[in-house]
């Protein structure tokens, strides 16, 4: 069985895709509209984006699910679509890899909630963890090989995301977002 670990060992590195949002805007996504809705509305565009990345050499493609958590989707009155949008995001990515000979790994993209966790904000770590768990579970069910927790800016939210995602038993990659001064929005 080909694993991400065996491919890193064999190749020395793996290339991940990038600029999903930028590419979707080029395909017609309008500012302010949830890109994750395209998993159901324009699946052929989402798949084309993945396939373009694979043709360009990506070994890892990220699902179109960055903002598909309960709190981000609530901004669009779609908090009840977490499972559907994440499952479809992973399924579309997996379907996109089927036409290629080389191994391509599906990374379930998990972005921040957009909320501020206690004690500075009102979101509890427990509620954030539950939201991330729900997203991670749906990504796994849709076919994700690993989870990609990205652009976090607080330790509390990263911890909640890790604890929620950990229950999926998938490998996890994490990243923070830093400004030009080397600090996150929350001062890390």
SSE blueprint and pairings:
Blueprint: H1 4-11, H2 20-26, H3 38-41, H4 43-55, E1 60-62, H5 70-74, H6 82-97, E2 105-110, H7 125-142, E3 146-152, H8 155-166, E4 172-176
Parallel strand pairs: 1-2, 2-3, 3-4
**Percent range of helical residues:** 40-55%
Q: What is the topology, as strand order, of the major beta sheet?
A: 1-2-3-4
Report Rg: 16 Å
User: What's the end-to-end separation, in Å?
Assistant: 39 Å
- The dominant shape is globular
Uncertain runs with pLDDT below 50, 5 residues or more?
none
The computed structural class is alpha/beta
Instruction: Provide the succession of SSEs.
Output: HHHHEHHEHEHE
Mean pLDDT over the full residue set = 95
Strand content: 5-15%
Major β-sheet, in short? 4 strands, parallel
Number of strands: 4
The total of helices stands at: 8
Please provide a written account of the structure.
With 188 residues, the protein is α/β, with parallel strands linked by helices. Helix content is 44%, strand content 11%. It is built from 8 helices and 4 strands, in the order H-H-H-H-E-H-H-E-H-E-H-E. A 4-stranded parallel sheet has the order 1-2-3-4. Helix 7 (125-142) links the parallel strand 2 (105-110) and strand 3. Helix 4 packs across helix 6, helix 6 runs parallel beside helix 7 (125-142) and helix 7 crosses helix 8. The longest helix is centred in the C-terminal third of the chain and has 18 residues, at 125-142.
